[in-house]
Amino acid sequence: DYKGTITYVNKKFEEISKYSAKELVGQSHRIINSGYHTPEFFAKMWGIIIEGYIWKGEIKNKAKDGSFYWVKTVIVPLLGRSKLDTQYISIRVDITKQKETEVNLANALEQLKGDDKLKDEFASMVSHELKSPLTPITGYCDMLLEPDFLGSLNKEQTESICIIKANSQRLEKLIGDVLDAQKLQLNHMTFTKKDFNIETFMTTLKNDLSIFMKEKNIELVIQDNFNGIINCDESRLRQVIDNLAKNSVDFVPQTEGKISIGVLQDDADYLFYVRDNGIGISLENQNNIFKKFYQVNTSATRKHGGTGLGLVVCKGIVEGLGGKIWVESHEGIGTIFYFTIPKITILC
After folding, report:
1. pLDDT per residue over 62-97, tens digit each?
2. Is 149 part of a structural domain of the chain?
3. Quick one: 315 and 241 in the same domain?
4. Can you tell me the distance from the alpha carbon of 338 to that of 275, in angstroms, rounded to the nearest whole number?
5. Does the pLDDT value for residue 30 go beyond 70?
6. Which of 159-180 are b and which e, b meaning 16 or more Cβ less than 10 Å from the residue's Cβ?
7. Same domain, 66 and 177
8. For residues 202, 203, 204 and 210, what is the CA-based torsion angle, rounded to 10 degrees?
9. Cβ–Cβ < 8 Å for 286, 297
10. With CB atoms 3.0 to 4.6 Å apart as the test, which of 97, 154, 228, 260 could cross-link to 275 if both were Cys?
């Protein structure tokens, strides 16, 4: 209830906490407090639900036998006749095994710090194990979104499937960034260069990104009339531009956002750029954004997720292709990322 007294538990809660319902009902919720979370954590949680909002998070609790367990929790306020919160429903899912896996992975990585070969093998193994479940997840999402396959969904169901698919794709990208950063650190990233037409490359880029940018309500301008042949790794070049463009998405205005992509040249290099009309990057942040795990923190951005490795990977790829990458930005005006690719590509 509103005082934190337990008024009801189901059998699953008894099983996880190792308390009986008789032992729990009428007791304060503090009976399962593990001491792991700070008072500020719970103050913030109560502040949210007291205002009538739903709270979601992960909580570490203590069972009757002294063991600890983790639960993914959703707390929903219920209104009484007076329109004030009188009690709360807490829906919990046991994620203890998931947390144990995370700890084991972290410990394994710590042990592998001194051995590059083992780190590489470990990263490959983790990549396979993490990516394998994503393939059927995204595949089934596509099937569910096609009425001809499994029937029609209502609006809420369709939105839920789209969220699952988007997060699966996001996770796949995060895994890719982690592994690419690892390959770059070990100097194991390979490049396959070939001649290809820049105009065709930019046209394909425009067609692929236009749908994504339209969904985000962002104007996309791509210079697709540049006629020239470049000798480069096409997929890695595309990876760099995709990373820079999608990174810009998080920092342009919610309305009237604009991202421009183009290419220039001089005698020695092709100069690619990605320009946005976002909030800009401070000089202090400009000096750090190409460092591992660094992220620009600002409440004025969209909710910016990721590992802080995207720009690190971009820098590694560009330098691996013999080029340079840098940023020019003014707060409140926007940002331009530039990078060069030599007309005669020198693989580093």
Report:
1. 999 999 999 999 998 876 544 555 678 888 889 998
2. yes
3. yes
4. 9
5. yes
6. eebeeebeebeebbbbbbbbbb
7. no
8. 100
9. no
10. 260
Domains contained in the chain, number: 3
Q: Which is nearest to 285 in space by CA: 251, 237, 323?
A: 251
Q: Is residue 105 part of a domain?
A: no
pLDDT of residue 224: 76
Distance between CA 322 and CA 319 in Å, rounded? 5
Please name which of 45, 101, 38 lies closest in space to residue 74, comparing C-alpha atoms. Answer: 45
Contacts of 91 (CB under 8 A, 6+ apart): 73, 74, 75, 76
CA distance linking residue 90 with residue 88, whole number of Å: 6
Name the residue among 174, 299, 175, 189 with its Cα closest to residue 233. Answer: 189
Max avg pLDDT among 103-117, 151-165, 303-317: 151-165
Share of the chain above pLDDT 70, in %: 85
**pTM of structure:** 0.55
d(CA 116, CA 94) in angstroms, rounded, equals 35
* CA atoms of 240 and 180, how far apart (whole Å): 12
**Amino acid identity at 178:** V
Q: Which two tokens stand for residue 270?
A: 């092709």
CATH number, residue 200:
3.30.565.10
Write out pLDDT tens, residues 256-295: 899 999 999 988 899 999 999 998 888 888 888 888 766 6
Higher-confidence residue of 5 and 125: namely 5
pLDDT in tens, 223-245: 877 888 999 999 999 999 999 99
